[in-house]
Design brief:
globular, about 500 residues, mainly alpha, two-stranded antiparallel sheet, about 75% helix
Length: about 500
Amino acid sequence: MPLLSLVIWLPILGGLAVLAASRHTTDANIRWMALAVSAVTFLVSLPLFFSFDSSTHEMQFVEMAAWIPTFNINYHLGVDGISMPLILLTAFSTIFVVAAGWEVIKERVAQYMAAFLIMEGMMIGVFAALDSVLFYIFWEAMLIPMFIVIGIWGGPRRVYATIKFFLYTFFGSVFLLIALIYLYFQADKSFAILDFHALKIGMEAQILIFLAFLIAFAVKVPMWPVHTWLPDAHVEAPTGGSVILAAIMLKLGAYGFVRFIMPIVPDASFELDWLIILMSLVAIVYIAFVALVQEDMKKLIAYSSIAHMGFVTLGFFMVFTIFEKTGSIQGAALGVEGALIQMVSHGFISGAMFLCVGVMYDRMHSRNISDYGGVTNTMPLFAAFMLFFAMANAGLPGTSGFVGEFMVILSAFQANFWYAFLAALTLIFGAAYTLWMIKRVLFGEIKNEKVAQLKDLNVREAAILGTLAAAVLILGLWPAPLIDVMHATVNNLLEHVVVSKL
């Protein structure tokens, strides 16, 4: 069975079917139809995990068919221990996005649901593509549904946010395309990503390719200083758009670092690792201070996402310093695996935080922290969930937010004490800005009449937040299955990266 094709095209065709059915049925039926498509897609994706052979680094569930033979472009799919968990995260998150818009989206319901379903298929396509042209097409095409979602269902400044989002991401993609075309000619006119990994390229060319890839992927993460599009996009996006942006779309850029930059230009990565480490540490420390002064809850969580993604890129690029100091890849593997776990964990936690803000916004139509206070008095169940996710966001032991950060910090000690010290500060800063927001929103006396009239979670909202809370707890208390899936792939990646230094 072509499992990957099924997971990619089922939501895309389902989205088109939702659009077609909108002329002949009610909005209520459209919602159920979209929920069914997203749920079936997730169920279909589960064999990727349960049938995955974690003992090998080889690509699995591979599909290969000639697409454009003239240019040796193929429909080539496959997954390894890095990409497979991200595909499951994408399929899992889309269910909650569809459910979150159940009552809030009242106009153009079919178009809203279809946009997210089509976007789901395209994002899975990015993670599964082993042909760089196929990767690039999915990479660019997924921008269109998100552009539409923010532009139509977004807030008052949605036009500004969509244009800024599109220009930033499209600008980076131009450099990505140039690098891929150069690599095509270097690889004897092959666009296969695995063929790029086998190339031996001179240092000067490697540095130029590194910088081209860096521009493309840093914008998507986003890394400091090309991060400014993200808070605007989050603030103006509807709740579902914010969830997908934070949970999945930011991970696409980080995925590009381990699928393209590190294996294709390892020597340049050795030379320029300091640049990524510097950008990552600035994101962890500086952006945390920016988050502290935010009055808009969505902006605060958006800046928090930038700081947490700094952990991911730090974990990836400490590899080179650790290897030069110890001559071993074991400590480096700890950092890379921690970064990958952080990517999955951040998908759960940031998605849940934006859903919590969405719950309050649906009732109060305000995201300003100052408009709240004493919410726990009228919404105790909601307050319990939001406090739990806030503590996970701050890295509370026992939650998924702790596991990845702790592994990256442990690895950082092997690279440089100051890397570890600055990275560990995020546990303090994260607690500061998150709990400062929680104190002002949930606790204290009720000062707003609208807060006094709030109603607690309904069954749908409680089911969404409860499921995400369970995911955060399970990954926090039992990360071993996820680590086992990644281990062989990460070790192979690091052996490939450092082979030129052996």
